[in-house]
Amino acid sequence: MKKIVKSLCIVLLLAFVFTASNHVNEVKAATKSEVTYKLKKGTLTISGKGDMPKKMTFERNGKIKKVVIEDGITSISKHSFSFCKNLKTVVIGKDVRKIGNGAFSYTKITSVKIPNKVKVIGAGAFENCKELKKVKIGTKVNTIDVRAFAECRKITKVKIPNSVKIIGRGAFFRCKKLKSVKLGKKVKFIGSTAFQTTAIKKIKIPNSVKVMGLAAFNSNKIKINVIMPGNVTSQINYNVAIYDAGKITFTTNLNIELMQHLEAENFEVSKNDPNYTTIDGNIYTKNGRTLVRVPALKKNVRIADGCENICTSAFRYTTIDRKNWEAQLNKNIDKLFIPKTVKTIDENSYITYGNEIKIDEKERNIVEKRAVAINNIEIENKNFDVEILSKLLDQVTCNKGEVLKQLVTK
Question: I need a surface site. Which of 3, 233, 302, 398 has the fewest CB within 10 A?
Fold first, then answer.
């Protein structure tokens, strides 16, 4: 009996030791994962291991001048330092994987280095950091979210690494001094207004890009030159993805549907394109006999010798700016030259727009079929069929009477 009791005691003792040992380990693990902070002489230091707790925020704290996120911290909580009006310096540890929404927005930081483990730069993470000049983005970032760097007006250049696949809406919106952008080779989506109102003069959009949103590139009236794939689709079917471009050069075969979403002075299709060619910035069928598209911003249009057929769709675009519809609908051509080789007008081919342009009644009830004003027209063939010309003017112009009167006078 004594032996049984003794054995039982030993078993209970071992069980207690084992349980106590596990309990100690659990306490140590909890201690290791604890995230703490310390504010001393304007420097806030975040220490420990794991994610910053959601409740650990220092929003609008005017005492913070510098933030140090130590190695071991794996995420920065949303709005954690937003509106810290005196925050100028940020050091982010190498283990951070996510920067939360609005984390450093509306601060005075001047530079930031995004660590290589970060995968997501949250929405508005650095929005309105108007003193931010230098940005280095880590090599594993795959998403630059909505308005991540919007209104950062002192940034002059950005290199988007090959890891990035999504550039969200307004990601670099109104970065007015942003002149140089190098896009990585794996970007698939560029959201609306991503680079609107910047100072970019030249951009190469990689062939990986599949979708672009409204005004993805609009460089504040600077004639931006664009190199891009010819098979990009639009995020919204009526939008214009690139405004105010000088020349747009296509690197892949052209999907003609893309044309209604691009506003430029000149186009250049790929030399290997099996369907189209470019002459004087206008797009023709490969044999040059049919005019397919005239750039929306081209003022002087000289249809090439050898062209036999004009598609009315060449002059028509669905380019709606709901705040300034007149400027968008009424394209102006100062001079149109039609060579004697032109014989026919085609109303049915290469159409990429609706028959009518409609705007909701609440925003004005408008139906506009004719979108181009031609100020001067010259026809090389003096015997050109007036009925054929009339068909072109009916489909294309908003000043048919003026054009016909001008021709009679001549």
Answer: 3
- SS3 of residue 59 by DSSP: coil
- Determine the Cα–Cα distance for residues 162 and 357; give it in Å rounded to an integer: 39
Two tokens at 327? 């400027």
SS3 (DSSP) at 4:
helix
Query: Cα angle at 179 between 104 and 253, to 5 degrees?
Result: 110
For 241-290, how does the pLDDT look when each residue is reduced to its tens digit (9 = 90+)?
Answer: 998 899 999 999 999 989 888 989 999 999 999 999 999 999 999 999 99
User: Domains of the chain: which residue ranges?
Assistant: 36-278, 309-409
At 145, phi and psi to the nearest 5?
Answer: -80, 180
| Contact yes or no for 393/400 (Cβ under 8 A) | yes
What pTM was computed for the model? 0.84
Architecture of domain 36-278: Alpha-Beta Horseshoe (3.80)
Is there a contact between 203 and 226 (Cβ–Cβ < 8 Å)?
A: yes
- One-letter amino acid identity for 108? K
Separation of CA 5 from chain center = 77
